[in-house]
Amino acid sequence: MSTTADTQTATTLKKSAYHHGDLRAGLIEATRQLVEQNGPDGFSVSDACRLAGVSTAAPYKHFKNKGEMLVAVCVEGMGRLRANMQSAVADIPLGDPRRVTVIGGEYIKYALAEPACFKLKFGGFTDGMDDDALKAAGEAVFDTAKAEVAACIGESEITPIVQQKAFMLWSFVHGLSFILEDKDLAEMGPEIEIEPLLADITRRVLSD
Amino acid sequence: MSTTADTQTATTLKKSAYHHGDLRAGLIEATRQLVEQNGPDGFSVSDACRLAGVSTAAPYKHFKNKGEMLVAVCVEGMGRLRANMQSAVADIPLGDPRRVTVIGGEYIKYALAEPACFKLKFGGFTDGMDDDALKAAGEAVFDTAKAEVAACIGESEITPIVQQKAFMLWSFVHGLSFILEDKDLAEMGPEIEIEPLLADITRRVLSD
DNA sequence: TACATATGTTAGAGTTTCTTACTTTGACAA
DNA sequence: TTGTCAAAGTAAGAAACTCTAACATATGTA
Predict the structure, then answer these.
(1) Which of A103, A109, A98, A201 has its CA nearest to residue A145?
(2) Domain with CATH 1.10.357.10 in chain A
(3) What is the fold of A73-208?
(4) In chain B, which end has fewer C-beta atoms inside a 10 angstrom radius, N or C?
(5) A42 CA vs C15 C1’ separation (Å)
(6) Residue extent(s) of CATH 1.10.10 domains in chain B
(7) What's A1-63's CATH class?
(8) Cα–Cα distance measured from residue B80 to residue B142, given in angstroms and rounded to the nearest whole number
């Protein structure tokens, strides 16, 4: 390595300790961790700043307020959920009802893996926030489900019947996710196994 | 009215302006209103005190902390929900699947009538709170549902099949409640009517 | 009447969100 | 090289919030 290169590298890596590099992303990750740790309501901007190593005023250069930080976490989460769904069905032929079951399973799996993010999006925290990116991310997930239902019942477009069946299945896995997430609630359905339950409800809803 | 009665009444009604009378109940109601107004996360003890007309320290004679105030609101809400269910099925013969449909309808109706209370109980706010009264109130609601399912499929006790079917129906109405409550989510199921949807899913789940 | 108890209040410590005014850094043009 | 500018940080502080401690007042009972 030449001396010049060394100098350049050192300069680049130093990051000057003043400018963070990508504080926005850093804060989103810090927020996600804290929310996942302390629950959706036990999050403070101050904590996120401590974790990211910046002053408590720094976030306000990147987000309008605390709520926008939480919304950003949700948007990222919905993106991950959709990606999970798509890779999970990749090996199953189109029109196979197992695709629907697997998609539902991914929904639940996500809810259990990132419970705080899930509650953040669907638990009423982001209700009045009206963020377009978040809305779009959510719709993309549901569109995926509708397409699978259509393929299963042999429809080439999203007819009212497809809408209705997809909506039923969504309601079911959505509710199931919330219930399984809450220890006290999950205890009320003791000897129940998720996979067979999912396959069962899928069959019932997709049938005529 | 006699003078004596007048004096007594006046004394009783005066409430001495120092002692509230029933501050615990007053604070629960104030909390409910505020939570319903500003969303589950937009509630402050201070606001409740202003609304009830007492100092910000007064609640701590009745509740351990903010969380306990919210839990108390949930417990009252679950009680109302159960009462609604019971009076709604009173005129339908036992074993009629319409009883199950109606119970589900009441669940959803409650969720839409007191959305913030509903989210408070089920949205993760009371997760780590572990309150026995709250847990019991929730179980009482589910027990009601299980009994109806058992009657419909001709079982005299809560068998695993009954458990499974009741759990399915609960998951469904639970998820549907959350979805309908959220304007952005409800838009995703546009031309869907709740009553027929409920009857449809009930039939599918109760069938063999 | 007098005391114990329940239920209030005031004052204040310690956090929290968010604003304002200032500083540092990096990039680019002259 | 140097001057300018926008972007991204800091420090300090206002306003609000939760909760505690110490004190005050009312109520019920012996």
Answers:
(1) A103
(2) 73-208
(3) Tetracycline Repressor; domain 2 (1.10.357)
(4) C
(5) 13
(6) 19-63
(7) mainly alpha
(8) 14
The CATH number of B19-63 is 1.10.10
Q: What is the distance between the alpha carbons of residues A176 and A187, in angstroms, rounded to a whole number?
A: 12
Q: What is the pLDDT of residue A171?
A: 97
Q: Residues 120 to 139 of B: which have CB under 8 A from any A CB?
A: 122-125, 127-128, 130, 135, 138-139
Distance CA B150, CA B166 (A): 9
Q: What's the pTM value of the predicted model, to 2 decimals?
A: 0.88
Please, where in chain A does CATH 1.10.10 lie? 1-63
CA B167 to chain centroid, in Å, comes to: 19
Q: What is the pLDDT of residue A21?
A: 64
CB B174 within 8 A of CB B198: no
Each residue's pLDDT expressed in tens, for chain B with a length of 208 residues:
333 333 333 333 344 566 667 899 999 999 999 999 988 888 999 999 999 999 999 999 999 999 999 999 999 999 999 999 999 999 999 999 999 999 999 999 999 999 988 998 998 887 767 789 999 999 999 999 999 999 999 999 999 999 999 999 999 999 999 999 998 899 998 788 999 999 999 999 999 8
> Cβ A178–B122 below 8 Å, yes or no?
yes
Q: Residue A54, CB, less than 7 Å from strand D?
A: yes
Spacing of A7 CA from C25 C1' in Å: 18
Q: Per CATH, is B70-208 categorized as 1.10.357.10?
A: yes
Q: Are A70 and A61 in contact (CB under 8 A)?
A: no
Nearest chain A alpha carbon to B128: A39
**Residues A38-91: pLDDT tens digits?**
888 788 898 888 888 888 888 888 888 888 899 899 999 999 999 999 999 999
Q: Tens of pLDDT along A152-177?
A: 999 999 999 999 999 999 999 999 99
- The pair of structure tokens assigned to B139 is 């179980």
Amino acid B12: pLDDT: 36
Single out the residue of A108, A120, A184 nearest to residue B121, CA to CA: A184
Among A113, A36, A172, A165, CA closest to B178: A172
Q: How far in angstroms lies nucleotide D23's C1' from the CA of residue B19?
A: 16
Task: Confirm or reject contact between A145 and chain B (CB < 8 A).
Answer: no
